[in-house]
């Protein structure tokens, strides 16, 4: 009873608005709408009985003429009502994109303030449109942006029982702490009151990849460690300007020298670090205050089966940008890389920051 009273009180302003509009109009404008007098609305059916945002709903009944407002009960979310689709026996409208999920009434109000309650179930699956990061280790906090995230109860890496912890959540944004996992990369299964959605975004567990640089130089394939053999540029670690973790690489590309050149300090059996590592993607974050084009070259020795060719990517001005480059973009990229060269394309005298520079299976 208390809930019913509270809902009625919450709708009083809506009723007053509808009545005010009705009483302030002595006659209708000639807008081409069918002239249908308001009646005593009675529901016969609603089709479908459940729907998502932007789906069409048809209400059939009697006395449905001259409806002025259609409101989804939870949070009083209005939807557009086309008067040309309003007859005495049917009303057509779309579920608003911002409708709150769950069972509720659709409230129809006519020009005389008469109300028809239509039982309905809004399907509001969780939606993720972007993430603050796509690389993680156990405990990394990632902000997911989208819709219908306020009632999420579970976030797991797809195909596993590895559950993230929900730190905070609103309708449009949710912060999660990522779990420990043996997975190299995967999507997220997100469940709310409506159901489960698998994200289109893929997330990468850094400790399970081949690390070139992520807060420290990677260990390399022969325990010698990844090193910078760069020429014509100054390479240093920085903790004052980072994307994730505690450190990033700062590369000052000087005039006359263009290459961030990464390899392993151990030579074994005539091969360098990624000889024994087959990857699917090269992944990294990059930042340049002025913006820059980067030319990525495997620079592998001429051994059979190693990647060759190049890939040019644009780093926009003053924005950390995420790159996930399929190694199939390089000739032989489905096999193996030797050394990695990241060159400024067509300009010098710029500083570029790199973070989470890794090969991913």
What's the gist of this structure?
With 361 residues, the protein is mainly beta. Helices cover 6% and strands 42% of the residues.
Structure description:
With 361 residues, the chain is mostly beta strands. It has three domains: 2-123, Immunoglobulins (Immunoglobulin-like), CATH 2.60.40; 127-205, Immunoglobulin-like, CATH 2.60.40; 209-360, Jelly Rolls. 6% of the residues lie in helices and 42% in strands. It contains one helix and 29 strands. The radius of gyration is 29 Å and the shape is elongated. It starts with a helix and ends with a strand. The model is unreliable at 1-10, 14-31 and 271-276 (pLDDT under 50).
What characteristics describe this protein?
361 residues; mainly beta; Immunoglobulin-like; Jelly Rolls; 3 domains; elongated
List segments where confidence is low: pLDDT < 50 over at least 5 consecutive residues. Answer: 1-10, 14-31, 271-276
Number of strands: 29
Biggest sheet, open or closed, and with what strands and sense?
Answer: 6 strands, antiparallel
Query: How many domains, as an integer?
Result: 3
**Helix content estimate:** under 10%
Mean pLDDT: 84
Superfamily at the CATH H level of the largest domain?
Galactose-binding lectin
Q: Architecture of the largest domain in CATH?
A: Sandwich
Beta-strand residue fraction: 35-45%
CATH fold-level assignment of the largest domain? Jelly Rolls
**SS field, number of helical segments:** 1
The CATH first-level class of the largest domain comes to Mainly Beta
Secondary structure class reads mainly beta
The backbone outline, from C-alpha atoms, is elongated
- The separation of the N and C termini measures 58 Å
């Amino acid at each position: 009873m208390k809930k019913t009273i509270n809902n009625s009180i919450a709708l009083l302003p809506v009723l007053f608005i509808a009545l005010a509009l009705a009483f302030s109009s002595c006659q209708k404008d000639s807008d081409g709408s069918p002239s249908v007098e308001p009646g005593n609305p009675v529901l016969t059916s609603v089709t479908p009985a459940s729907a998502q945002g932007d789906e069409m709903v048809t209400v059939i009944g009697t006395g449905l003429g001259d409806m002025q407002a259609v409101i989804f009960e939870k949070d009083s979310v209005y939807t557009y009502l086309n008067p040309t689709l309003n007859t005495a026996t049917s009303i057509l409208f779309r579920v608003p994109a911002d409708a709150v999920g769950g069972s509720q009434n659709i409230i129809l109000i006519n020009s005389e303030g008469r109300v028809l309650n239509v039982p309905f179930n809004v399907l509001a699956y969780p939606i993720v449109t972007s993430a603050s990061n796509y690389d993680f280790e156990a405990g990394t906090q990632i902000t997911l942006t989208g819709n219908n995230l306020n009632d999420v109860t579970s976030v797991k890496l797809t195909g596993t029982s590895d559950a993230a912890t929900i730190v905070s959540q609103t309708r449009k944004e949710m912060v999660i702490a990522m779990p420990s996992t043996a997975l190299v990369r995967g999507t997220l299964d997100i469940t709310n009151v409506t159901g489960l959605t698998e994200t289109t975004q893929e997330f990468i567990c850094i400790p399970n990849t081949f690390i070139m640089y992520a807060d420290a130089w990677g260990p390399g394939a022969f325990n010698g460690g990844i090193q910078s053999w760069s020429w014509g540029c100054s390479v240093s670690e920085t903790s004052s300007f980072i994307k994730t973790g505690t450190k990033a690489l700062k590369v000052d590309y000087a005039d006359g020298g263009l290459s961030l050149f990464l390899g392993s300090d151990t030579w074994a059996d005539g091969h360098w670090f990624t000889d024994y590592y087959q990857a699917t993607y090269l992944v990294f974050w990059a930042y340049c205050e002025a913006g820059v084009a980067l030319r990525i070259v495997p620079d592998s020795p001429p051994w059979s089966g190693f990647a060759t060719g190049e890939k040019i990517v644009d780093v926009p001005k003053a924005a950390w940008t995420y790159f996930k480059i399929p190694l199939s973009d390089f000739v032989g990229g489905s096999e193996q890389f030797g050394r990695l060269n990241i060159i400024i394309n067509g300009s010098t005298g710029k500083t570029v920051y790199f973070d989470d520079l890794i090969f991913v299976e």
